[in-house]
Amino acid sequence: MLGAVPGLLCCPFCRELYTKDDALERCPDCGVDLVPFHEVAPSPETQLEQDYLVEQTPPEWRQLALWDWRRGRGLLPLLALLGLVSYALPWFSQSLPETRVLTGYQLARHHVGWLWGGAVGWFILIPLVITRRSIAAMRGVRMIAAIFASLTATEVLVFVNITASRQNQVIVQFAWEWGIWISCFVSALGACIAVTLGGPLPARQKSDPELPEPTVVTSKGKRPKIPPTLH
Questions:
Q1: CA–CA separation, 153 and 187 (whole Å)
Q2: Is 25 in the same domain as 89?
Q3: CA–CA distance from 206 to each of 101, 203, 210 (Å)?
Q4: Is residue 151 in a domain?
Q5: Chain-centre distance for alpha carbon 28
Q6: Same domain, yes or no, for 81 and 50?
Q7: Is-cis flag, bond preceding 97, omega within 30?
Q8: What value, to the nearest 5°, has the Cα angle with vertex 101 and ends 95 and 104?
Q9: Digit-coded pLDDT (tens) for 53-72
Q10: For the sheet containing 173-176, what is the strand order?
Q11: 188 and 103 share a domain?
């Protein structure tokens, strides 16, 4: 908050604060030139306190950099983008009673509306994963991320089976195009990445040595202290 105050000056040595109304260029106590407060580096005590807080935070809860794409945080949004792009690929071709080729987008818009579920899942998955800034947060959304990623594959398999088993009086000749299988593969791969999102928990370092086992002195010498049995 102090860094946002206009005209606030600070002595880099004693860290005394002054305003421009004081009409000072140097600290009257130290003789050091005053600098804007936001340019002063944290004091050693403050830096030690911040380092201590970081050390006390479990590794899985430490905030990662915004552009840290490890542990599936970058691969999964990339697969989500590929999943959305796959809706523009040809999914279905028909030769009788008419000749036409339909993309996933055209199928979802004009014929099979519930195919939009997969696209919505991909769309939600991108901000869901990018906003997870710690290992624990990424691991916490594994299940929901896997569900969103697998929606397209599930819908494609249901759609293919329903269409293949449907019997019509009109002769219809159709084929599944390569785009639908690419979409299904991307969805299955995304689900596999989602269940491992965040990776394993990092190993914790022992900050304190192990305490020796308590002992009691008896007439026969020292022996380990046995805790009482709880009933």
A1: 5
A2: no
A3: 62, 10, 9
A4: yes
A5: 50
A6: no
A7: yes
A8: 135
A9: 667 778 888 888 888 899 99
A10: 100-103, 90-96, 173-176
A11: yes
Output the six-digit token pair for 139: 């691991």
Element (H or E) spanning 217, and its range? strand 215-218
C-alpha 199/C-alpha 76 separation (Å) is 13
Cβ pair 57, 132 in contact under 8 A: no
Q: How many domains does the chain have?
A: 2
Pair of tokens at residue 221 = 């010498």
What is the distance between the alpha carbons of residues 42 and 114, in angstroms, rounded to a whole number?
A: 56
4 has a pLDDT exceeding 60? no
What is the domain range of residue 27?
Answer: 2-56
Structure tokens given for 194:
């989602």
Q: Which residues, 6 or more positions from 198, have their beta carbon under 8 angstroms from its beta carbon?
A: 71, 72, 132, 135, 136, 137, 138, 139, 142
Is-above-0.70 flag for pTM? no
Which residue stretches of the chain are H helix? 44-56, 75-85, 104-110, 116-130, 135-140, 142-165, 178-194
Encode pLDDT of 69-125 as tens digits.
999 999 999 999 999 999 999 999 888 778 889 999 999 999 899 999 999 999 999
Residue with the bigger pLDDT between 181 and 212: it is 181
More confident residue, 9 or 1: 9
Backbone angles phi, psi at 121, to 5 degrees: -60, -45
What does the alpha-carbon distance between residue 73 and residue 65 come to, in Å, rounded to a whole number?
Answer: 11
DSSP character at residue 61: G
